[in-house]
Design a protein that fits this description.
Length: 227
């Protein structure tokens, strides 16, 4: 049954804004059909799709994190919802994405002793007004009865966006960009949460900082994995 609020503001699709039918939740049927759950084969280390065994990048140089769990392939309605969350100032979509990817997030969150979002540099945080990774981490953690740490990691260097860069250039761009607090991450099984992973360069650098500060192991959970 629909609530009174739903009658006044009928629920719309989180991706395309179409009005939802009674049985639809968050996404209309067309958008729901466009999302793809990440499935095997994938790289056991970085979750790159269609890689049976370690992918060439992980074989060439192992990332600092030991495993990536990702809910969806980046694309379709998931890409639309993430971009609306990030650029159109609709932070409530964090809760929508959290609900959509909860089944795929459970194991990684259960493994962790500490949960931290990939931080934004204070300049970008001021510009955007919120950190989308923090919203996602908080929303998933809330559904699982967990708390996150927003102080464990910080971004110490302002870096230009990674979009449009090659793998090597992405690594160079974020090298040494993160700091971790030893008093918070020491001996932890740290789960880093991000919205989208592309080459993994950002997650690698953040993981390095955490390991250097004493984290025992770092894994990553992201909503969407780009090819
Ligand atoms: Zn839709
Ligand atoms: Zn890999």
């Amino acid at each position: 049954m629909r609530s009174l609020l739903d009658l006044v503001f009928p629920p719309r699709c989180a991706a395309c804004r179409a009005f939802l039918e009674g049985h639809e939740r968050h996404l209309c049927a067309a958008c729901a059909a466009s999302i793809v759950e990440l499935s095997d084969p994938r790289c056991p280390r970085c979750a790159l799709p269609e890689a049976p065994g370690l992918c060439p990048r992980c074989r060439d140089k192992a990332p600092a994190f030991t495993r990536v769990d990702a809910a969806f392939l980046h694309g379709g309605a998931i890409a639309d919802v993430i971009s609306r969350l990030k650029y159109r100032d609709t932070p409530r979509l964090g809760a929508v994405l959290a609900e959509l990817c909860l089944p795929m997030a459970r194991e990684a969150f259960a493994w962790s002793s500490l949960i931290a979002p990939i931080p934004l540099h204070p300049h970008r945080l001021r510009w955007r007004g919120f950190n989308q990774s923090q919203l996602l981490a908080e929303a998933i953690a809330r559904l699982l009865g967990r708390r996150i740490s927003v102080r464990a990691l910080s971004r110490t260097r302002h870096t230009p966006p990674q979009v449009g860069r090659s793998g090597a250039s992405r690594l160079k761009n974020v090298a040494g960009a993160f700091a971790a607090r030893g008093d918070l991450v020491a001996n932890s099984r740290l789960l880093l949460v991000d919205d989208v992973m592309t080459t993994g360069a950002t997650a690698h650098e953040a993981s390095l900082a955490a390991l250097n500060a004493g984290a025992r192991e770092v894994r990553v959970f992201c909503v969407a994995r780009a090819m």
